[in-house]
Design a protein that fits this description.
By secondary structure, the protein is an alpha/beta fold. It contains nine helices and 17 strands. It has one domain: Ribonuclease Z/Hydroxyacylglutathione hydrolase-like (Metallo-beta-lactamase, Chain A, 4-Layer Sandwich), CATH 3.60.15.10.
């Protein structure tokens, strides 16, 4: 089946699965009686250099999306210790690039308990050679392969919905990145891994990109992602770019910063803080701040 026809067919499944979920800036609207049941939404986008790692604290559960590089694994663990994280309910690896999966082994060797691992079924690497599969087997941790349309349920009102990839790219692993929509009563976040304009186009054509309060900018803010069509459809209030210009002068690309500003988006970059960029969602409103370690 042609890639576009596959994308459209899968979009029907996804739209049906997500039809009852709250989208956009009105997603936090609840009656006072529901306020006590709302999950507190805090996301920490870690300073792990030109790499990705983000911690989501959702009520009494914690999920980590990507683990940075092998070299930045100690920085990742320092943030987790700073926030007193001793257990992760799930760790999601968006794709197999070393700046996303590189810190996973160090994490699994640490004292932090991990309940489950998640990875995309689509990859340029075979399942037998997949780094997440190998580590799941070595450390006896359950692994769930994810497809578009799948859901990771956090609680009755909060979930991670897998929007993509809709098709497998046999040449560029970035286009096999998991694209996740964190759906909460307080508002939504879109997590993009390293997807490029090709994967963006498939999701746009399938009608799966809807407004969200927060965007984790794809591919460290490089100019091969975050098209105008994508950003103007999403229209985030706040965006976080996970990169360090000292490690890669091409990120973030000034064109991407301008595109975000043109949509009225507030932009944070992880290298600006020694610890992380903290983002909170409350009643559909996103607030970000830079978190630095205390100096004694």
């Amino acid at each position: 089946m042609p890639r576009r026809m596959e994308a459209l067919a899968l979009s029907v499944i996804l739209c049906a699965a997500c039809a009852t979920l709250p989208f956009g800036r009105d997603a936090g609207a609840e009656t006072p009686a529901d306020d006590a049941r709302q999950t507190t939404v805090t996301a920490l986008f870690l300073n792990v250099g030109k790499a990705d790692a983000a911690l989501f604290m959702l009520g009494n559960k914690c999920y980590l999306v990507d683990t940075g590089t092998k070299e930045s694994a100690d920085a990742m663990l320092r943030v987790l210790a700073f926030y007193h994280v001793t257990r992760l309910d799930g760790v999601v690896i968006t794709h197999t690039d070393k700046d996303h999966v590189g810190g996973l082994k160090t994490l699994l060797k640490s004292d932090i308990a991990v309940g489950e691992l998640y990875a995309p079924q689509f990859s340029v690497i075979s399942e037998q050679e997949h780094p997440v599969a190998k580590l799941a087997d070595k450390y006896a941790i359950p692994l769930r392969w994810l497809y578009a349309g799948d859901t990771i349920t956090v609680d009755d009102t909060t979930k991670l919905v897998v929007l993509g990839p809709l098709t497998r790219d046999g040449e560029n692993e970035n286009n096999n990145s998991l694209v996740l929509r964190l759906v909460t009563p307080q508002g939504d976040m879109l997590l993009t891994g390293d997807m490029l304009v090709q994967e963006e186009g498939e999701l746009l054509d399938a009608g799966l990109i809807q407004p969200a309060a927060v965007l984790k900018v794809s591919h460290h803010g490089a100019d091969d992602a975050s098209s105008e069509a994508f950003l103007y459809t999403l229209r985030p209030q706040l965006a976080v770019i996970s990169t360090d210009p000292d490690e890669g002068a091409s990120t973030p690309d000034p064109k991407i910063i301008r595109r975000l500003w043109n949509t009225g988006t507030e932009v944070f970059i992880t290298h600006q803080a020694s610890c992380c960029v903290q983002v909170t969602l409350n009643a559909g409103n996103a607030v970000g701040r830079l978190v630095n370690y205390f100096v004694e």
